[in-house]
Specification:
There is one protein chain. By secondary structure, this protein is of the alpha/beta class. It has two domains: about 5-155, Hexapeptide repeat proteins (UDP N-Acetylglucosamine Acyltransferase, domain 1, 3 Solenoid); about 195-250, Udp N-acetylglucosamine O-acyltransferase, Domain 2, CATH 1.20.1180.10. The protein is built from four helices and 27 strands. The protein has helices at about 195-200, 205-220, 225-235, 240-250, and strands at about 5, 10, 15, 20, 25-30, 35, 40, 45, 50, 55-60, 65, 80, 85-90, 95, 105, 110, 115-120, 125, 130, 135, 140, 145-150, 155, 160, 165, 180-185, 190. The strands form three sheets. Strands 1-4-7-10-13-16-19-22-25-26-27 form an eleven-stranded mixed beta sheet. An eight-stranded parallel beta sheet has the order 2-5-8-11-14-17-20-23, with no helix packed on it. Helix 2 packs antiparallel against helix 3. The model has no long low-confidence stretch (mean pLDDT about 100).
Length: about 260
C-alpha cells in the first residue's frame, strides 16, 4: 500500500509503483514513472520525462528532471533515468538530457549528498559517491565506484574513471583515469587509490601492476603515447591495464 500525503500533487498520468511514500507538498508531473519501494520526502518536484527505478530515497527540496541549463535546448522531449537503491539528499538538482544524447543517467547504488547538481547528458555509474556540493557540468561521465569530495566542480565533457577518488574542494578540468587518487591544485595524480582498491578486494599483485602502469604514465620521462606503448610492450594485459589504456584512448580532454 502506498503512503501518499494528501497535500502532494500527482498528475493523473504519472505511474506510481507499489509501496511508495510521497511526502507533503511534493509534486509529481505528467509522464513520470516511479517504481516500487521508493521514499520521496516533502517538497520534492519530479518533472516530466523522469523515470525512477526501485528502492530509492529522495530527500526534501530536490528537483529531478528539470529542463537542462543549455541555451541550445529547444523544448525537445528528453529524459532523466534513475536506477535502483540510490540516495539523493537534500536540494539536489538533476537535469534531463538534450538532443545530443537525449538522456541523463544515474545508475544504481549511488549516494548524492546535499546540493549536488547533475547537468544534462551526464552518465553516473553504479556505486558512485558525490559529496556535498559536487557540481557536474554537462556530458560528464563518472565511472563505477568513483568518489568525488565535497564542493568539487567537474568541467563539462570530463570523464572520471572507475574506482578513482578525488579530494574535496578541487577542480576537475581534465579526465581523471581509473584507480587513482587525485588531489592538489591544479588537480594531479597522487598515487593509486590504495585504500579503496583494498576495500574492494583488489589483491596486492593487481594493485602493484596498476601502480607500475601509472609510474610510466605520470612519473617517467615518457609522453603519454610512449608510456602507453611501454605498458603494452612490458606488462601483462590484465583487465585493469586494459581499462587504463582504453580510458586514455577515449579521453577527449586529456589527462590531469
Amino acid at each position: 500500500m502506498n503512503n501518499i500525503h494528501q497535500t502532494s500533487i500527482i498528475h493523473k498520468n504519472a505511474k506510481i509503483g507499489k509501496n511508495v511514500t510521497i511526502g507533503p507538498y511534493s509534486i509529481i508531473d505528467d509522464g513520470v514513472t516511479i517504481g516500487d519501494d521508493n521514499i520521496i520526502h516533502p517538497y520534492v518536484h519530479i518533472k516530466s520525462g523522469t523515470t525512477i527505478g526501485e528502492n530509492n530515497k529522495i530527500f526534501q527540496g530536490s528537483v529531478l528532471g528539470e529542463e537542462p541549463q543549455d541555451l541550445k535546448y529547444a523544448d525537445e522531449k528528453t529524459t532523466l533515468i534513475i536506477g535502483d537503491n540510490n540516495t539523493i539528499r537534500e536540494n539536489c538538482t538533476l537535469n534531463r538530457g538534450t538532443d545530443d544524447s537525449n538522456t541523463t543517467i544515474i545508475k544504481n547504488d549511488c549516494l548524492l549528498m546535499a546540493y549536488v547538481h547533475v547537468a544534462h547528458d551526464c552518465i553516473i555509474g553504479d556505486k558512485v559517491i558525490l559529496a556535498n556540493g559536487v557540481q557536474l557540468g554537462g556530458h560528464s561521465e563518472i565511472g563505477y565506484h568513483v568518489t568525488i569530495g565535497g564542493m568539487t566542480p567537474v568541467h563539462q565533457f570530463c570523464k572520471v574513471g572507475q574506482h578513482a577518488f578525488i579530494g574535496g574542494g578541487r577542480v576537475i578540468l581534465q579526465d581523471v583515469p581509473p584507480y587513482i587518487l587525485a588531489t592538489g591544485e591544479p588537480l594531479q595524480y597522487a598515487g593509486i587509490n590504495s585504500v579503496g582498491l583494498r576495500r574492494r578486494n583488489f589483491n596486492q599483485k593487481t594493485r602493484n601492476n596498476i601502480k607500475i602502469a601509472y609510474k610510466l604514465i605520470f612519473k617517467s620521462s615518457l609522453n603519454i603515447k610512449q608510456a602507453v606503448q611501454a605498458i603494452k610492450d612490458k606488462m601483462e594485459m590484465t583487465d585493469e591495464i586494459k581499462n587504463i589504456i582504453q580510458f586514455i584512448k577515449d579521453s577527449g580532454r586529456g589527462l590531469i
